[in-house]
Amino acid sequence: MSQAATSTVETSAIRKVAWRLVPFVALMFFVNYLDRTAISFAAPNGMNADLALSAAQFGFASGIFFLGYILLEVPSNLALHRFGARKWLARIMVSWGVVALLFTWVDSAGGLYFLRFLLGVAEAGFFPGAILFLSLWVPARYRSRILALFYLAQPLTTVIGAPLAAALIQHDGAFFGLAGWRFMFFGVAIPAIVLGIVAWFYLVDRPADARWLTAEEKAWLTAELEGESREKSGTSHEKKGLKQAFCSGRVWALCLIYFGFIYGLYALAFFLPTIIGGFEAQFGTSFDLMQKGLITAIPYLPAAVVLYFWSRDATRRGVRSWHIALPAFTGAVSVPLALFMDSPAATVAMITITACSIFAALPNFWTLPTRFLDGAAAAAGVALINTIGNIAGFSSGYLTGALHDLTGSYTLPMFVVGGFMAMAGVLMLLISRQPRPGVSASQRPAMARH
């Protein structure tokens, strides 16, 4: 095949993957993130009062989700590697949709804790499985672009989800006498079940099985992916098995970097609606339920725009260490400063900078593990990194609530968020200077160059 013909096949193959798989998997992620953060919208709108929850209890309920997720995340991703993404991601979605539906009838703090834990068990493996699935469909040079398109679902979940949650909550008592926050849980659970069933028939495990690719496109994608796999086999000793993924210092460094970003992400996700609800006492302003939902969404729309263009630059240049470290340091400074602003608008503007920082870094971060891990080691390594991130998810919810109860404000909790994000930036700069085992300086990936 001529170079021009190869270029045409390459362009069409990547375009088809981007249009046929990424939007659907991103929609799955949208529903996934909405279901796990729906509790943040319910809390200040009746749930905390009805269940008599303190800030620490709400934080614990928010965070215990991640303990259930952690228990089964690595086994779940290995099962996905063995049985295929189509079956496993569909199974996960239907399972978590059923559990999410049960929140409609929760009647105690203990019941809330149990269901949040069970939701984590049901969702275990979805996010790293989706990341791995998309990474195995495109060559490394396209992953930043593909993962950025996928990651757009996360900030857009709040942009769309916050007003949606507010609209559902406003139907207080309108459906079978359910309180508004209970009806909101019902409304966001049903789509997960429906999408899970659709995913069983829509997803395809590998390019060779995709009917929507031409024979030439299948051959090109398969050859490119197999070539990368062989190259990893020849240049890295970290790819050869499950044990190597868990014994890799680079994997553990990536775990800690991800911990810092996810701690910040979920501190904002779980407590931003509550912080906005406190504007009346802090600034003397008053907002109705829909206005609060729209204000909650404000930081995430610019975050989606920044995510897209920052990842586009990373795709053009190759992912560099500063594509991840610079957002980490920016977020580390902006998140505590938000609490020292003198108006709701200035506070939300500073929180917006934090949200932009977190979302700019995350899709580029996820291009790194599959650069030096493959096969079962990649499945385990990606799951391990996300597991440590989920520990951050639990920690941020519980510690933020506990520190608020201890100090009476969110100042100290947000300084803790800033500290963890600064740690992520420092570690990113440190590992970027370390060559991979068995790789010469001239062979280092773009992440190691400045």
Task: Summarize the structure in words.
Helix 13 (249-277) runs antiparallel to helix 18 (344-365). The chain has 20 helices and no strands. The model is unreliable at 235-239 and 437-450 (pLDDT under 50). The protein has one domain: Growth Hormone, Chain: A, CATH 1.20.1250.20. It has helices at 3-20, 22-42, 47-50, 55-83, 85-102, 109-123, 126-135, 140-151, 153-169, 180-202, 215-235, 242-247, 249-277, 279-283, 289-297, 300-317, 322-337, 344-365, 375-407, 411-432. The protein has 450 residues and is an all-alpha fold. Helix content is 77%, strand content 0%.
Topology of helices and strands:
Blueprint: H1 3-20, H2 22-42, H3 47-50, H4 55-83, H5 85-102, H6 109-123, H7 126-135, H8 140-151, H9 153-169, H10 180-202, H11 215-235, H12 242-247, H13 249-277, H14 279-283, H15 289-297, H16 300-317, H17 322-337, H18 344-365, H19 375-407, H20 411-432
Helix pairs in contact: 1-11, 2-7, 2-8, 2-9, 2-10, 2-13, 4-5, 4-6, 4-19, 5-6, 5-7, 5-10, 7-19, 8-16, 8-18, 9-10, 9-15, 9-16, 13-15, 13-18, 13-19, 13-20, 16-18, 17-18, 17-20, 19-20
